[in-house]
Amino acid sequence: MTRNDDGSFEGRETMHEFTEGFVRAAGSIDNSLFLDGERAGVPVQIIAEMIRMYSYSVDFQREIQPGDKFEVYFSRKYDQANRPVKEGDVHYASLTVGGKVHKLWRFDPGNGEWDYFDENGQSMKKFLMKTPIDGARLSSRFGMRKHPILGYSKLHAGVDFAAPRGTPIYAAGDGTVKRANYFGSFGNYVAIRHANGYETAYAHLNGFARGIRAGTRVRQGQVIGYVGTTGRSTGPHLHYEVHVNGKKMNPLALKVPTGRKLEGTELAAFKAQRETLATQMAEAPSATRVARVETRDGGAN
Predict the structure, then answer these.
(1) Is the pTM of this model over 0.70?
(2) 130 φψ region: left (φ > 0), alpha (ψ -120 to 50), beta (else)
(3) What pLDDT was estimated at residue 169?
(4) Are 196 and 173 in contact (CB under 8 A)?
(5) Is 94 exposed, middle or buried (0-12, 13-18, 19+ CB in 10 A)?
(6) What residues contact residue 158 under an 8 Å CB cut-off, 6+ apart?
(7) What is the pLDDT of residues 128-153, one digit of tens each?
(8) H or E stretch including 47?
(9) Cα(119)–Cα(103) distance, rounded to whole angstroms?
(10) Can you tell me whether residue 44 is helix, strand or coil?
């Protein structure tokens, strides 16, 4: 914007050409994936995407231990001065948890519906997420326990995740909201009906996300509410339940169906892309070396 002599303003739009390069980063986890990832030069947006990628198979609150490792390969946009201006997509990630290596590649089978797949061509998605909340502490497991308020033993038909008030809570899977209202000792409560006889329930919410009401369709990972301490509760936490054909199940022990698996020509194309990506990764700069990047046309800047 520039000011004219008469005090008015005039706007001018400047278009810049961006180049796309690829960056890799790797490191060990001593504190958390967020802290150690940033230390290794991984942008916050990319770390958040990695957590989303692995949220179906890895419990970041309980399974990550010091000494676990990570690696990521992602694209990044650069301006004409070769300054990074925007992060792109994660094309490959590896997470070693307890000695087990979890590798995922981004792949589009050709219909525009890309996903992350493991080395066998199995989609990383599962029917339900392992935990529907980030950054929480498991404060009470499924099973018989002495109730902290009532004082006698009874079945705790879900799991509790202690977290600060207002922490987002996600829909564990695609489905339809069955109810979203105040529900007795559960306080603010959301129940979601999924396919194949599955239902999930979320209790003691501080409040509901906008648009969450009975009959609303929700997608996996969508924010449906926020941690609170409404109803019969001793502090801010999420009480989470999974019901299968009306029976209450242990969410942490439940084996849920997985997503699609590549076969035939799709699997062959996926394997070919993996080989190409391995060559590109070997030539890519480290995330900490932002002054140099290999661009799509093969030139170095």
Answers:
(1) no
(2) alpha
(3) 93
(4) no
(5) middle
(6) 142, 201, 203, 239, 240, 241, 242, 248, 251
(7) 887 888 767 777 766 665 556 555 46
(8) helix 44-54
(9) 7
(10) helix
